[in-house]
Amino acid sequence: MNKMQRKLIDLDNHGQKVRVGLVGCGKMGSGLVSQLSRIKGMRPSVIVDRHVDKCVTALRKAGVKDVDIVKTTDLKVAENAIKNNSFVVSDDYTLSYKLDMIDGVIDATGNPPFGTQLAVESIEHEKQTILLNVECDAVVGPILNEMAKKKGVVYTGSAGDEPGAIIQLSDFALGLGFKLLAVGKGKNNPLDNYTNEDILREEALSKGLVPKMLTSFVDGTNTMIELTAVANALGFTPDVLGCHGITTNIHDIADEFKLKEQGGILNNYNIVDFAFGVAPGVFAIVTHDTNEVHDLMEYLSMGKGPNYTLYRPYHLTSLETPLTIYDAIVEKEPTIYPKYGQVSDTITVAKRDIKKGQIIEGIGGHDCFGKITSHKHQMENNLLPMPIITEKTTAKVDIPKDTLITYDMVNLDEDHIITRLRKRQDELGL
């Protein structure tokens, strides 16, 4: 029995629980509900989705009886339901943070504009704030983290998502005294920057995914955004625009992720990247400055060095989120956060010709895909961070296919909180 189990069982034995509000009940949210239902001392007391029936279905799949499910938008009714050990389902996301009995709020929407609004309000109400919304963190995470620090609450990404898994592996390496050279993830899907939801619809639905979500995986945007979150947590950047993205295997990757003068592919260390052939795992390339450790690593079949691969062959997405819930609420520790500020960015590239006046579809849409670059490069060239595209973003000019889209090529929704926060973040140099 580990520390987390001991503490949660002790809470449960004393009639207490870690209570969370979950916003977003798609594939990740629904899986989390089932996982939490089997952990003593934790409870998804409030579950919110635009389609409330999804919340009810998730609870039923977790074994909750209908008599224990209360559907409401009324704060008082919700309070009484939780006191009576019932589960609250709603389409009103404000219940997730307005209820005093809720310890933390989890965003599982994957929607950057909405996720920004939710994070701000959750932090303002002094709730520990957990994001399964890396798209939001990658563009306004630094300023959200500053807001959380001022309120004395934790702002964090989730264990189980690849960024969280990479940071956990990095923490392991750094804690043991290794030098971290490069980190990354296996690419779980084929890469086609120009695909769209029409092409992928049938495959997406067969996997229980929203077509836009699968599109963001296949066109590479999701990978770029995840690596941006990792880069901002470690102070790393991509070695080249969009990363190398080599095809390799777990035995050869350490030799390939060396500097060019050492026979590898890299111009620099302290980088993030992805690779085909190592999915669904995450990796860290490390070295050490003592001969004794090098000798022992070779003895342990870790290779001849000087670089070695630490590899975790899986990531369990929201099924691992309880680890972050525990750390954030009980230990007051984040899993992953933008410790170094906006070091890298996911910028916007046109998938096709975009006409002046056209509404630009953002993540998972027909119009653009993302590429990771350094924040310095983004700022110097006025490049548009992709996650701030909202439903009201339009083209000011004709934009040819493959153009790196700049701020002055688009009309943004200047009143939206994600636009305002990113502007403020850049002004503050966060």
From TrEMBL:
This is Putative dihydrodipicolinate reductase domain protein. It comes from Finegoldia magna ATCC 53516. PANTHER family: SAF DOMAIN PROTEIN, STRU PROTEIN. It comes from the Bacteria. Residues 160-321 form the Oxidoreductase DRL-like catalytic domain. Pfam families: DRL_cat.
